User: What shape does this take?
Amino acid sequence: MASGRTADGKVIMAKVVMYSTAVCPYCVRAERLLASKGVAEIEKVRVDLDPIRRQEMMDKTGRRTVPQIWIGETHVGGCDELYALDRSGKLDPLLNAS
Ligand SMILES: N[C@@H](CCC(=O)N[C@@H](CS)C(=O)NCC(=O)O)C(=O)O
Assistant: This one.
């Protein structure tokens, strides 16, 4: 697996963006998995607070449910798809790609 590291040895992880809402059990599950993988920071886009960003999410994905997750340039999809990606062994390489 190709993974970049900082000078002090920390693995450089891809940027994670999650479109989410305040009350969203699937978002919490997704965050839990990402945290277990060492993702320290998730950029959250709160679509419940901003209808323009909700529309943007729907335009980009064709979906209306949250979460919608991007890892780097890759649209992973929702929580179930994130867990499926992990089961298939493809989540770690995606997170660690630098
Ligand atoms: N299978 C989806 C389910 C996501 C889902 O149902 N999210 C809820 C919030 S936790 C939602 O967006 N509900 C609004 C709706 O269904 O329109 C996933 O794994 O992400």
In short: The chain has one domain: 16-96.
